Amino acid sequence: MNTIVSDMLTGSEIFNTRFLHYSWIIPTGLFITAVFLMVYAFRRPGKKSSSILKGFLSLVYVFSGLSVWLGMHEVDAISAISGAILLWFYALLFLMDAIWWQKIEFRIPERTDLKVAMILLILLGLLYPVIEMSFGYSWPKMVLFGSECPTTTFVLGLLTGSLPKTNKWIIGFLATNAVLVGGYVGFNGFIVDAVTYLPAGIISWIMMIRYWKKAPVKKIPVMIVALVLTASLTGCTKINEEHKEAANLYISNIDFQSLKTGTFRGYYEGGMYGWRENECMVTVDSTSTGSVQVVAVELIRSVEDRPHSFFAELYHRVIDRQSLQVDVITGATLTSRAHLKALENALIKAKQ
C-alpha cells in the first residue's frame, strides 16, 4: 500500500475518531434520505423530483468535501485541499443542474442493460461498507455513505439509469474520476475500490458511449466489456494474494543478546511482486555493561515512497525494545512487516 493510499485510510480514521458522533450519524441520515429521494424520483419521475434529488446530492458532496478536509489536512494538506475542491465542484454541478440546466431526469430505464447497470452501481454504492468489512476493514478505518467513493458509485448508478436524458458533462466528470481514482487506489492497496469504484466508472463510460444519443449504439463489442471486467477481477485477485502473503510474513523472535558486534546488511525482496522491496544496514555493538545491543539502523533503499520519519519511527521502536516484536506503524502494517523482515535478515547474519 503506497503513501497516498495509506494517508487516505489514515484520514478516514482521524475523521471517524475525532468527530465520532458526526462521522456515523450524518452518513446514516444521508443514506436514509438518499434512498427515500431515489424511490420518490423513481415513483414520480419528472423535473420536481429530480431537482430535489439533485439538490440533495449537492449537499452530500459538500459534506464529502468537508470530511476529506477535516480528515486529511493534518496528514497531507495538498491532497486534502485538492480532494475537497473537486468534491465541492461536483456539488456546484448538481446545484447548477437542479436550478438552471435541468438536463438530468432520474427514472427507472426501460432498456434491460441500463436497468441492470443502474441497479448494480446503486447497490455497490449503498453496500460499500459491507464490502469493506468483507475485505477485513473495520471501524474506524472505513468510509461510509457521504464519502467520495460510495457516494459517487451510487450517483453513477442514478446517472446511468437516466441515460440518454442526462447531463453528459457531469456523468463524464464523475465516471472519469472513478476510473482514475478507483484504479489508482484499488491497485495500490485498497482493493475495495478495485471492485466497486473502478468498475462503476468503466460501466458508466460504456453505457454513456452506447447511449450517447437516444438510439443505442449497437456495435460496441461485448468482448471489450468482458476483457475490462476480467482484467479488473484478475488484478483484484493478485492484489489480494499479495496482501495475504504480506500479512502472514513471519518475523522471528531473535535474541539480541546472542548477536555478534559489527555492521550487517539486510535485504527483503518485497514479496511475490516486489512491491515492498527494501534494504537496511544494522549496527550491533557492546555497551559499557558488557551487553550486546542494536545501536543503529539505516535505510539503504526502499521501493515504497515514504517519508524518512516513517522508517525512523519503526527503527526507533526496534532499538528501544531491542526486539523485532514491536508495534507496526498505524496505517502501514504490511510495509512495517516488510521492513522488519529486512531487519531480521540482517540480524540472522549477526548470529552466524
Architecture overview:
The protein is mainly α and 352 residues long. Helices cover 64% and strands 8% of the residues. A 3-stranded antiparallel beta sheet has the order 1-2-3. β2 and β3 form a beta hairpin. α10 runs antiparallel to α11. The longest helix has 26 residues, at 47-72. The protein starts with a helix and ends with a helix.
| Assembly category | single chain
Helix and strand sequence:
HHHHHHHHHHHEEEHH
Number of domains: 2
What would the principal axes of the Cα set say about the shape? elongated
Per DSSP E runs of 2 or more residues, the count of β-strands stands at 3
State the end-to-end distance.
33 Å
Main beta-sheet strand count, sense and barrel state: 3 strands, antiparallel
Low-pLDDT residue intervals, each spanning 5 or more residues = 219-223
Share in β-strands? 5-15%
Structural class: mainly alpha
The average pLDDT value, as a whole number, equals 84
| Strand order in the largest sheet | 1-2-3
Query: How big is the Rg?
Result: 24 Å
Number of helices: 13
Portion of residues within helices: 55-70%
Quick overview of this protein structure:
The chain is mainly α and 352 residues long.
Structural features:
Sufe protein. Chain: A; 3-stranded antiparallel sheet; 352 residues; mainly alpha; 2 domains; 64% helix; single chain
